[in-house]
Amino acid sequence: MCAVTQHLLLGGERVGTQLYDLGVRRGDILLVHASMRSAGGDARGMSDALRRTLGPEGTLVVPAFTPENSDTSRSYLDRVRGLSDEARAEVRASMPAFDPATSPAPGMGALAEWVRLTPGALRSTHPQTSFAALGPAAGKLLSGHRQDCHLGENSPLARLYEADAQILLLGTGFASCTAFHLAEYRRPAPPRRLYRCVVASEGGRRWWEYEDIALDDSDFAALGADFGRARAGVVRKGRVGAAQSHLFPLRAAVDFAAEWFRERRPDGR
Question: Any bridge partners for residue 166, and if so which?
């Protein structure tokens, strides 16, 4: 065995030990938000370590979001700020249509893209907030993702809640905790807005507009800090690779967030 191969294997074993020490177990359903820049190493090695720790009975889930094909997304609005109407129209015309089989999700990071592209991975069909997964529960978790429901009861987040999944924030903060959005749907009469994106169709590309709740992650970092303090017994902390990471039950996070929103967003925002 060459020195490079041996080093990679030893690194994978170390990450596997770190994951186990943090609380990841064989057979778990695990939603991962990861920053490989913080963790170090490569996405393939991290994916392998996660899948070995979960075992063949476990399921690995990652976000595969695609704001790049929407002209109502924050990324689009940032991109066209200050441009002329003509330049905005050119940007809009060049936006790629969403195709669940081929559309990349560059903003989700290297690990999410590696998982999405791994043979056997499944992906839900929402044109903005799809998820990808590997493992025996992938089909059940990802099916039925309605195209007018980003992250609510008809999305994989609700199925992950029902399955008592775990969340691993691998080198990312609570501002990236997508599961908090499910709690937004569980508020009484949450505010709603229009969304628009371009999707692939038999005739080529077409624009599709739909209404859903107004997603707001601006206070997720504060929410997560309160969750970590109030539920210190269920939020486990440790290093995975070189990254400080957190592991906790998705259900506990969503339930805490629902109560937190009732107190912190009383005006219905």
Answer: 30, 249
